[in-house]
Design goal:
alpha+beta; HTH_AraC; 6-stranded antiparallel β-sheet; Arc Repressor Mutant, subunit A; globular
């Protein structure tokens, strides 16, 4: 059995992975507050990798690209309780709690380790998943308000993330693409994150790089894979996902077309 998501409310779910591992490049539309119940999670953001286990709590800011790899561990599936902190919920909350928001250029995800207040709040959701009916919105709203209040209590700067409802502004393409090309995202998502429509993104990209986004992304990912295999002596099967390919066969075909030999030949 692979992935299961059990929703008791549109903003509250229990997530479960039973496979050997699950890897995805993710971009969340909402802030997510996640409590890991079992299993292990590796998160790659930029050139930094973080590892989390059962009991840890994280806040994923919206509109941030990260790579997430979930593993079962100790005979248990990877399981987590997830709370969506949507703009509507946060707007309602902050309409009652006025704050001055400082703009943060690139908010990082926040780790709260095994903070007892957050653990208690999110662990209290688990029995609700035994219900055979949707959790009433009034109860869900109380739990979400509780979580936001706890976050504000234990992190004095969290308002600068939660109360900032700005959409991504237009930014330079060169630095952004060089930092994020290995993420397996659609072209329109890259456009959104750089503050452009799809048409404008393609036009600006061609002007900046003298090629199309897809050709540039493929070449950059293949060059990174070539470096990892030749210089770091890594196996092709361990590399292709990390550099942005979804399929090992497609990766091998593209690699040979680009370099004239297969990744397996390079690794030998």
């Amino acid at each position: 059995m692979g992935y299961q998501a059990q929703y008791i409310h549109p903003d509250l779910k229990l997530s479960r992975f039973d496979d050997k591992f699950y890897k995805a490049d993710v971009l969340f539309e909402h802030h997510l507050l996640v409590w890991f119940i079992s299993g292990e999670t590796k998160i790659v953001q930029g050139d930094t990798t973080y590892l989390f286990g059962a009991g840890d709590t994280l806040l994923f800011p919206r509109n941030q690209l990260v790579t997430v790899i979930n593993y079962p561990k100790d005979g248990l599936p990877h399981q987590s309780a997830v709370m969506h902190l949507t703009p509507k919920r946060l707007t309602d909350f902050y309409s009652r709690n006025k704050v001055d928001v400082k703009r943060i250029q690139t908010p990082k995800f926040q780790s709260f380790n095994q903070h007892p207040l957050l653990q208690s709040c999110l662990a209290s959701l688990v029995p609700y998943f035994d219900l055979n009916e949707t959790l009433p919105d009034v109860i869900a709203a109380l739990k979400i308000d509780e979580a936001i209040t706890i976050l504000r209590t234990i992190d004095a700067d969290i308002d600068h993330i939660l109360a900032n409802f700005d959409e991504p502004g237009k930014i330079g393409l060169t630095d952004f693409m060089e930092q994020h090309y290995m993420f397996n995202m659609s072209i329109d998502k890259f456009g959104y994150l750089t503050g452009r429509s799809l048409t404008t993104f393609k036009r600006d990209f061609k002007r900046t790089f003298q090629t199309t986004p897809q050709k540039w992304l493929t070449n950059k990912r293949l060059e990174l894979a070539h470096y990892q295999i030749r210089e770091k002596r890594r196996r092709p099967s361990d590399v292709y996902l990390e550099v942005g390919f979804e399929n090992l066969s497609h990766f091998g075909h593209a690699f040979k077309k680009r370099f004239g030999y297969s990744p397996t030949e390079l690794a030998d």
